[in-house]
Amino acid sequence: MQYTIFQIDAFTDNVFKGNPAAVVPLEKWLPDEVMQKIAMENNLSETAFFVPTHNGYHIRWFTPLTEVNLCGHATLASAHVLFNHLGFNKKEIKFESKTGELTVKKEGQFIVLNFPVSELKEIELPQNIKQAFGKRPVKCFKGREDLLFEFNNEADIKNLQPDFQFMKTLDTRGITATAAATSEKYDFVSRFFAPIEGINEDPVTGSAHTMLIPFWAKKLGKTELMAKQISARGGVLHCKLLGERVEIGGQAITYLQGEIFV
């Protein structure tokens, strides 16, 4: 069978920046093992698949190793495909997912995700946690699936020396490191690691911001924030706290459109 595939750079307006995601629109679901093999073949942090429903689309996301419950950049990439390549002409897309309903709207050049907040609980720093980063964090918090570590400053985040094998021993899907931003253009910076799911460092991570937005909104006393993920590729996220939901806005650009044969 032949299927169209797109590769989209999300949370950027330049190719080779942001976070690349593969998007495969479907009329009906392929077997799970086939979708997992496609994601492994793509070898990107996420491949998104979606099928039409009566009021929108059902979306699923796969890393090269496993299916995940929530992914921001691949949802943004999927919306970009619908708006720019598949003729979707409404302002809002409704996606059904394992995390519930996700809505995505277009605002000028930006695509805005509406996701549920990940509640945080402060926990003790794991034993020997300095080994994970090469530097000891200040605090640790547990979210829905991930851990969040706060550091003293942006330089700490830039200079992290992640030990991916040690990170695999932690009881978590992913690990977010964050600190206040040095530049006045941004409120906070972050990096995200998920080696247990085959992603040593994710370039830009929308799902991590379901933790980061409420964390920094409370810390800084504001509900609208600008965030930068300072991976090698980098990405910018426009953030807003809306009670138990967050909005995460960014741009996207098409890198590739092609066909796959499976």
From TrEMBL:
<keyword id="KW-0413">Isomerase</keyword>
<protein>
    <submittedName>
        <fullName>Phenazine biosynthesis protein PhzF family</fullName>
    </submittedName>
</protein>
<comment type="similarity">
    <text>Belongs to the PhzF family.</text>
</comment>
<dbReference type="GO" id="GO:0005737">
    <property type="term" value="C:cytoplasm"/>
</dbReference>
<dbReference type="GO" id="GO:0016853">
    <property type="term" value="F:isomerase activity"/>
</dbReference>
<feature type="active site">
    <location>
        <position position="46"/>
    </location>
</feature>
<dbReference type="InterPro" id="IPR003719">
    <property type="entry name" value="Phenazine_PhzF-like"/>
</dbReference>
<dbReference type="Pfam" id="PF02567">
    <property type="entry name" value="PhzC-PhzF"/>
</dbReference>
